[in-house]
Specification:
CATH topology: Rossmann fold
Radius of gyration: 16 Å
Shape: globular
Oligomer: single chain
Number of helices: 4
Number of domains: 1
Bound molecules: inosinic acid, magnesium ion
Strand order of the largest sheet: 4-3-2-5-6-7
Mean pLDDT: 94
CATH class: Alpha Beta
Number of strands: 9
């Protein structure tokens, strides 16, 4: 189904769907009947986010934030920039930050610290993917879909230079694409 820029499918849409349902149930259970603000980190988390919130049977608000730690290509710049802030205050609210992937951990540790300063009632992080071997700063997600090896992946929201976010599966990018 995919062209030669894709080396292989790493996590299929079916596996993602099943895991998203489990994550949604777990988050709702941990909220003990309280409402939550689900925060989508743009742009990578949008596909996962849309599935996750529909797997959660509870009262919620949704909001969007955009930060960036990546230039082009597949390596981090180490710098985090705020591109779009939340639309509503989160003081006193339960917040779950939803991310596509934790790689170096730089983006999320910055984002979590920044939102913590606004004094939410609670703040947790849910990520579709986690590459623990790549950490530059100590960071742990509260809800992790899949732990993966150190390979560059695209699809289900994840991009290579802003392309391929629409692939239904999480796929390993063929190394020829970025070593050229
Ligand atoms: P961190 O700050 O290094 O943890 O970077 C997290 C961000 O890097 C994610 O939100 C992604 O946008 C991007 N990223 C890290 N690894 C990958 C990957 O394998 N594919 C696509 N994007 C990635
Ligand atoms: Mg991202």
């Amino acid at each position: 189904m995919y062209g030669k820029e894709i080396a292989r499918v790493l996590v299929s849409k079916e596996e993602i769907d099943a895991r998203v349902k489990e994550l949604g149930r777990q988050i709702v259970e941990d909220l003990h009947g309280e409402s939550v603000t689900m925060v989508c980190t743009l742009r990578g988390a949008c596909v996962f986010f849309a599935d996750l919130i529909r797997a959660m049977d509870c009262d919620m608000e949704i909001d969007f934030i955009a930060v960036s730690s990546y230039g082009g290509g597949t390596t981090t710049s180490g710098e985090v920039k705020m591109i779009k802030d939340l639309s509503s205050p989160i003081e006193g609210k339960n917040v779950v930050i939803v991310e596509d992937i934790i790689d170096s951990g730089v983006t999320l540790s910055y984002l979590k610290r920044m939102l913590e300063a606004r004094e939410p009632k609670s703040i947790k992080v849910c990520t579709l993917l986690d590459k623990p071997s790549r950490r530059k700063v100590d960071f742990k997600g509260d809800y992790v879909g899949f732990e993966i090896e150190n390979e560059y992946v695209v699809g289900c929201g994840l991009d290579y230079d802003q392309h391929m976010r629409n692939l239904p599966d999480v796929c390993v990018l063929a190394p020829e694409v970025y070593t050229k």
